[in-house]
Amino acid sequence: MARVASTAKKVASKQKDKRSVGSSKQQTCYVCKKCSSKYAWSTGACPKCGTCLCLNVKKRDHSCLEEHLNSGDPNVRCNGTKRVRFPKASRADDYV
């Protein structure tokens, strides 16, 4: 008879105390790359495509997530595929 090994890991003490374990994956915000060469680090992501985005409002009328979901520019708007590099053609006129 074959022996079945347990595939579950033991619960860490931090997990028992409901604290986070490990490190978060950080990337630069895709929409912030539109406005500035100095990007904002973010751990948020678009729920539809997984593109890294800021989830809070920064010196603009709406958040990067809202702009990503509702933009008229096809290079910024969510199309279901994860994006990392921002095209130069879609940069803002006041790009710094």
Summarize it.
With 96 residues, the protein is mainly α. Helices cover 16% and strands 4% of the residues. The longest helix has 7 residues, at 64-70.
Measured by DSSP, the beta-strand proportion falls in under 5%
In the sheet with the most strands, the strands line up as: 1-2
Global structural class: mainly alpha
Principal-axes shape call:
elongated
Helix content: 10-25%
Structure characterization notes:
This protein is mainly alpha-helical and about 100 residues long. Helix content is about 15%, strand content about 5%. The chain has a domain at about 35-85. It has helices at about 15, 30-35, 65-70, and strands at about 25-30, 40. Strands 1-2 form a two-stranded antiparallel ribbon.
Please specify the SSE layout and strand pairing.
Layout: H1 13-16, E1 27-28, H2 32-35, E2 41-42, H3 64-70
Antiparallel strand pairs: 1-2
Key attributes of the depicted protein:
single chain; 96 residues; mainly alpha
